[in-house]
UniProtKB/TrEMBL annotation:
<dbReference type="InterPro" id="IPR001453">
    <property type="entry name" value="MoaB/Mog_dom"/>
</dbReference>
<keyword id="KW-0067">ATP-binding</keyword>
<dbReference type="InterPro" id="IPR051920">
    <property type="entry name" value="MPT_Adenylyltrnsfr/MoaC-Rel"/>
</dbReference>
<dbReference type="Pfam" id="PF00994">
    <property type="entry name" value="MoCF_biosynth"/>
</dbReference>
<comment type="similarity">
    <text>Belongs to the MoaB/Mog family.</text>
</comment>
<keyword id="KW-0501">Molybdenum cofactor biosynthesis</keyword>
<dbReference type="InterPro" id="IPR036425">
    <property type="entry name" value="MoaB/Mog-like_dom_sf"/>
</dbReference>
<keyword id="KW-0547">Nucleotide-binding</keyword>
<feature type="domain" description="MoaB/Mog">
    <location>
        <begin position="4"/>
        <end position="150"/>
    </location>
</feature>
<protein>
    <recommendedName>
        <fullName>Molybdopterin adenylyltransferase</fullName>
        <ecNumber>2.7.7.75</ecNumber>
    </recommendedName>
</protein>
<keyword id="KW-0808">Transferase</keyword>
<dbReference type="GO" id="GO:0061598">
    <property type="term" value="F:molybdopterin adenylyltransferase activity"/>
</dbReference>
<dbReference type="GO" id="GO:0006777">
    <property type="term" value="P:Mo-molybdopterin cofactor biosynthetic process"/>
</dbReference>
<dbReference type="InterPro" id="IPR008284">
    <property type="entry name" value="MoCF_biosynth_CS"/>
</dbReference>
<dbReference type="GO" id="GO:0005524">
    <property type="term" value="F:ATP binding"/>
</dbReference>
<comment type="pathway">
    <text>Cofactor biosynthesis; molybdopterin biosynthesis.</text>
</comment>
<comment type="function">
    <text>Catalyzes the adenylation of molybdopterin as part of the biosynthesis of the molybdenum-cofactor.</text>
</comment>
Length: 173
C-alpha cells in the first residue's frame, strides 16, 4: 500500500511558511490505519499544470494506491486543483466533495467556496481535502470509512483501519 500526501501551495512550496495540512493528514493516517503502508509527502505550487503533472506521475509512474491532496480548491485565480483533477481522472466520485463541503460548513461558513472532488485513475484513488488545517480531521473522520472499500473495488492495495478511530465499511460477503 502506497499513500501520497500532496500539499498544493505556492507559498509552502517556496518555503515561505510551513505546511500545516500535510502533517495533520499524516498524523491522522498513522492513528487510523493499522495495515502497513509507505507514505510519500510532496509540496507543489498551485496551478493546473503542476497539479496535473504531479497526479499523473504519482498514478501512472509510481502507482500510488491513495493520493490525498490538500489546498488549491478555493475560488482564487491560482486555485486550480479541481480542474487539474478532472483532467487526470478516469472516473469522478463527486459524492466525496459533496460530503466534504457539507461537514466543513460546520467548521466554517466559507466552506461553501470549496470545490473538492475525488475520483480514480487506474488503480489510484485521489481525494481533494481542504487546505484549512481546522477542517482536515473532521473531513477524514467523515469520508474515510468508504476509502478501504473503494480501494478494494478499483484493485488498489488493501487497507485496514482501527475501528476505534474509523470503522471501514465493507459489505458483508
Amino acid at each position: 500500500m502506497q499513500i501520497a500526501i500532496v500539499t498544493v501551495s505556492d507559498r509552502a512550496s517556496r518555503g515561505e511558511y510551513d505546511d500545516l495540512s500535510g502533517p495533520l493528514i499524516e498524523t491522522w493516517l498513522a492513528r487510523a490505519i493499522t495495515s502497513p503502508y509507505k507514505l510519500t509527502k510532496r509540496i507543489i505550487p498551485d496551478g493546473f499544470v503542476s497539479v496535473r503533472d504531479e497526479l499523473i506521475d504519482l498514478c501512472d509512474q509510481h502507482r500510488f494506491d491513495l493520493i490525498l491532496t490538500t489546498g488549491g480548491t478555493g475560488p482564487a485565480a491560482r486555485d486550480e486543483t479541481p480542474e487539474a483533477m478532472r483532467a487526470v481522472l478516469i472516473k469522478e466520485l463527486p459524492g466525496f466533495g459533496e460530503l466534504l463541503r457539507r461537514v466543513s460548513l460546520d467548521q466554517t461558513p466559507t466552506a461553501i467556496l470549496s470545490r473538492q472532488t475525488a475520483g480514480t485513475r487506474g488503480h489510484s484513488l485521489i481525494i481533494n481535502l481542504p487546505g484549512n488545517p481546522a477542517s482536515i480531521r473532521v473531513c477524514l473522520d467523515t469520508i474515510f470509512s468508504a476509502v478501504p472499500y473503494c480501494l478494494d473495488l478499483i484493485g488498489a492495495g488493501r487497507i485496514e483501519t482501527d475501528p476505534n478511530i474509523i470503522k471501514a465499511h465493507r459489505p458483508a460477503r
